Amino acid sequence: MNSSSDHTPMNRPHPRRLGHLVLNVRDIQASVKFYTEIVGLEVSDWIGDQMVFLRSSTDHHDLALAQLRSDDPRAIEPVVPGRPGLEHFSYEVASLEEIETLGRFLQENNVEIVRGIGKHGPGENVFLVFKDPDGNYVEFYCEMLQIPKGSTYEARVWPDDIDGFDRWHYSRFLVPPPDWGPSIDPDKGK
Ligand SMILES: [Fe+2]
């Protein structure tokens, strides 16, 4: 992508990092159980029994859950994969070893795994994606490439292939590769 600053206003925002996410949920008790017991978050506060704030670090919340009205017809259906909007959100963990342990933990707890364990090309991050009770995709990741302020890092365009999606070529996947994902080119490397 063209990163020319010709059209960038000098007073553009300077966000420090992505902060928090709020999800509408069908069953807040089921969801808070999932996000504490499976994802490992801590409860920071509730508003009545309709909204709960959760944290993974020192911010009061990086995730909040809001109970949908049960009489709202939009609240019945789970999240449909592939719809416009959020694809997944992600929590950092310490290491590949921890992600491998968490993969077994998710399977033991009958959590549906969506994709992974893999290692992306861009960002070099290790990923394991799974579903929450509403069907949202949640991810554990580690080893994200760091780009310090003022570094000489330059964005580039990667080919849309297996090496960009999973450097490990699905060899550590706990589930079949996604049908939309790049397939392994059998001629590559010959
Ligand atoms: Fe991700």
In short:
This protein is of the alpha/beta class. It has helices at 28-37, 96-108, 162-165; strands at residues 21-25, 42-47, 51-55, 63-67, 89-92, 113-119, 126-131, 137-142.
Description:
The protein is of the alpha/beta class. Helix content is 14%, strand content 23%. The chain contains 3 helices and 8 strands; from the N terminus they run βαββββαβββα. It has helices at 28-37, 96-108, 162-165, and strands spanning 21-25, 42-47, 51-55, 63-67, 89-92, 113-119, 126-131, 137-142. The strands form 2 sheets. A 4-stranded mixed β-sheet has the order 1-4-3-2, covered by helices on one side. The protein has a 4-stranded mixed β-sheet with strand order 5-8-7-6, covered by helices on one side. The chain binds fe (ii) ion.
